[in-house]
Design brief:
Elements: E1 2-6, H1 13-24, E2 27-30, H2 31-45, H3 49-54, H4 70-80, H5 83-97, E3 102-106, H6 109-113, E4 119-124, H7 127-138, H8 142-152, E5 164-167, H9 173-187
Parallel strand pairs: 1-3, 1-4, 2-3, 4-5
Helix pairs in contact: 1-9, 2-4, 7-8
Length: about 190
């Protein structure tokens, strides 16, 4: 089963997706980390992002704390909007998902990358809650940065037509995961 979790910054996609993958013993695909790794390598080497995306050096950087740096935050949106970069990474994302049993999170996973997923979730939260979460996670200004990223990335952030919307305001991570597990069990 492929479960896609899309939504805006600060909705809880990464936290929920990682925990859900562990709970279900599924692979976890963090597409945002892929774009961030390409951005980081391009910034460090001066290579064009498309050249980085088509290579494999970026994959070794997926767990690098520098992925969350201010420099990457400032550049990742422009990199991720490049159609050639999206196409290069989309092929790799599809290859991973073709192996089955995965939780994939991003902004267009259920609509573009894997539109035939068995379960598509649109994770969301109010702008105030998303701003608060980012500020708590990364500093006071991060909340506004997250909402600005959403404005910049609007073209890539597509709500899948057949997705189930899960509003996370006022819910714990465990409560969100339980709601999604109930959806998974309903698919079985």
């Amino acid at each position: 089963m492929i479960i896609t979790i899309d939504g805006p910054a600060g909705a809880g996609k990464s936290t929920v997706s990682k925990a859900l993958a562990i709970r279900l013993d599924y692979r976890y695909l963090d597409t945002g980390a892929m774009y961030r790794a390409v951005t980081l390598v391009a910034l460090e080497t001066g290579e064009e992002p498309i050249a980085v995306a088509q290579g494999d050096t970026w994959s070794a950087r997926l767990d690098d704390p520098a992925l969350r740096s201010d420099a990457v935050d400032a550049a990742v949106s422009a990199v991720s909007r490049q159609p050639e970069v999206r196409e290069a990474l989309r092929g790799q994302q599809r290859a991973i998902l073709a192996q089955g049993n995965a939780v994939a999170e991003g902004r267009d996973i259920g609509s573009v990358v894997w539109p035939h997923a068995e379960l598509k979730v649109w994770l969301d939260a109010s702008p105030e809650e998303r701003r608060r979460r980012r500020a708590a996670e990364r500093g006071a200004e991060a909340g506004d940065v997250a909402l600005e990223r959403d404005r910049q990335d609007a073209a890539q952030m597509l709500v899948p037509e057949d997705s189930v919307r899960v509003e996370t305001d006022g819910l714990t991570i465990t409560e969100v995961i339980e709601r999604i597990v109930a959806l998974v069990e309903g698919q079985a």
